[in-house]
What does this fold into?
Amino acid sequence: MSAEIELRAITHAYRTYSGRLPVLEHLDIRMPPGSFTAFVGPSGCGKSTLTKLVAGLMRPDEGQVWLGGQMVTSPRATVGMAFQNPVLLEWRSILSNVLLPLEIVPNKLSKSRRVARARELLALVGLSEFEDKRPSELSGGMRQRASLCRALVHRPEVLILDEPFGALDAFTREDLWQTMHRLREEENFTAVLITHDLRESVFLADEIVVMSARPARIQHRMASRLPKARDLEVLYTPEAVEMLAALRRQIQIAQGRDAA
It folds into this structure.
């Protein structure tokens, strides 16, 4: 079951040796249940900090984070996370890696049902034949597919994706975008994507949020004009091209390269 995400007047800063470093400032946004929201913006503007706040790994200096009608004050078992580095455990098989959250997150599933759930996800991303392999025996794209399965195996309400495809080559990245769409069709979650790839944000998201330079505010919000069902050809439509051009301009403004 997906959950609504709400950030209410979030302000946050890091403490450094040279003093206070403001990162986020008066951030207000609501992400409906089942939505897919992409955050883009200049490097170092606080996008990853935002994900840590949503996951409960950090608490904001000011403001509140709410998930599913509950204020977040600590790490939440209902949140799944996937990062640029899959961080799979080499001494465990791919199936065993995917099962790891079910060994940590409290649940009432029997061992057979846990295994069935993991295999269901591996089949969905095309890894059924590789469940007994070790991570080093898989390509980078295959490891990232396994990482996505691990993030979803406990049926989280929220899925946080922090540049999960950023280290992959262009062809593998595009293949995983389509995999992400398949997962979204089959699984029920609210997604938050952090990315520097504007094409990725346009292809995957229902809404794209452009953040300003640090301390980051919400500079611009863009609702997708693309159909819900998408293939890569949609990126060459006039609607997608217009969205990309508008986003590039917003990034230039955020970087201080455009006075408009």
